[in-house]
Amino acid sequence: MADIQSPLPGTFYHKPSPEEPPFKGTGDAVAVGDVIGLVEVMKTFIEVKSEIAGSFSGYSVDDASPVTAGQVLATLG
Questions:
Q1: Which residues pair with 47 in a beta bridge?
Q2: Which residue in 53, 51, 64, 59 sits closest to 75, CA to CA?
Q3: Is 28 in contact with 4 (CB distance < 8 Å)?
Q4: pLDDT in tens, 35-69
Q5: Strand, helix or coil at 61?
């Protein structure tokens, strides 16, 4: 198992917009550089990208949840 952590504090989103599906679902392949979510800080959205390849195991925090820097956002198997 490998963790994807938040690069900074803010609000974490699983989806690019409320009408769209999440960036990744359980079992999806993840390549290096794939976007798995967004962190919003003061109305600016920062892409959270995977630094490793693997199989997406799931999000560790709920959509639209506040997060801290270094908090685990998702896991890869």
A1: 38
A2: 59
A3: no
A4: 999 999 999 999 999 999 999 999 999 999 999 99
A5: coil
